[in-house]
Amino acid sequence: MVLAAGLALPLLAQAAEDPAVAQLTQRLMAIQANPDASQLAAFERLQAQQAVADLAKAKRRDLDQARYLAERRVEIAETSVRAALAQREVDQLERTRSELLIEASRRDAQRARQETEQLRVQAQIQAEETERLRQAAEQEALARQDAETALTSVAGKQTARLSAAQQNALKLAREEAELVSGNKLPGSKVDSRGEVFTFNGDAFAAGKGTLSGGAKGQAKALAEYLNIGKKGRVRIEAYDAAAGVGDQRAQALRDALVAAGVSASRLQVAGKKAAATKARSAEVIIAP
């Protein structure tokens, strides 16, 4: 440091004669004047001062090379100082970071212990509540099972009574229809389509669409049955292998029901091109 200051004094004398020497000398003195940088890059600054001194004493033929070397040495000194300052800041930041990490670690550990204790207490409370709810659910399930058993028994009895009442109502309606009309109803069954009355193969002459006398009587009895209590829509389906005969049969059966008092708006007809059998030539389906 003393050597650097001693070298700087002669340079000040030379600075008045060479502007480059003055500029480079000022840059070196600026480093020296900075208390944060005055102790940094001493070797690089010494080399720069020596190069500037050589520039001040250089002969004309060596002037360009001496100036270039002096400028590079000063630049290297400045760069070294900046790098050293930056490293010092990095080291300080690293120390600060380490201190903060240690403090944060202590706080995190304490917070973790507190949270662990809170979670333990919460877990215990939840376990107790879960057990209470489980016992309550078991009791509720038993009570519900008892209630469902009782309701099922009652519902089963009510369903059986309702079914029996419905069957009895249908039986009475059939008997009344047959009594009023003086004719027997065609055979019937109940399936997914509803209540189905089936006219057998004797209801129509072979290949014909005209109702036989017995079928007309059955149609009259069926009309009475429909007018007594069955208010739903009615679909008439008739069958024959010959084209158009199924439609004729369905229409003839519809006309017979309308003539016996059934509202035409309730009736739908459909002819099926399918062979009639001894057991079935037409069906009247009453929607549920």
Low confidence ranges? 1-9
Continuous helix count = 6
Elements, N to C (H/E): HHHHEEHEHEE
* Average residue-wise pLDDT: 85
Binned, the helix content reads: 55-70%
Largest sheet: 5 strands, mixed
- State the end-to-end distance: 116 Å
Q: Structural class, from secondary structure content? A: alpha+beta
Question: Can you tell me the CATH topology of the largest domain?
Answer: 60s Ribosomal Protein L30, Chain: A
List the helices and strands and how they pair.
Layout: H1 2-15, H2 19-33, H3 42-57, H4 63-181, E1 187-191, E2 194-199, H5 213-228, E3 234-240, H6 245-259, E4 267-273, E5 282-286
Parallel strand pairs: 3-4
Antiparallel strand pairs: 1-2, 2-5, 3-5
Helix pairs in contact: 1-2, 1-3, 2-3, 2-4, 3-4, 4-5, 5-6
Walk me through this protein's architecture.
With 288 residues, the protein is α+β, with helices and mostly antiparallel strands. The protein folds into two domains: 97 residues, no CATH class; 105 residues, OmpA-like domain (60s Ribosomal Protein L30, Chain: A, 2-Layer Sandwich), CATH 3.30.1330.60. The chain is built from six helices and five strands. The chain has a five-stranded mixed sheet with strand order 1-2-5-3-4. The longest helix has 119 residues. The radius of gyration is 58 Å and the shape is elongated. The N terminus is likely disordered.
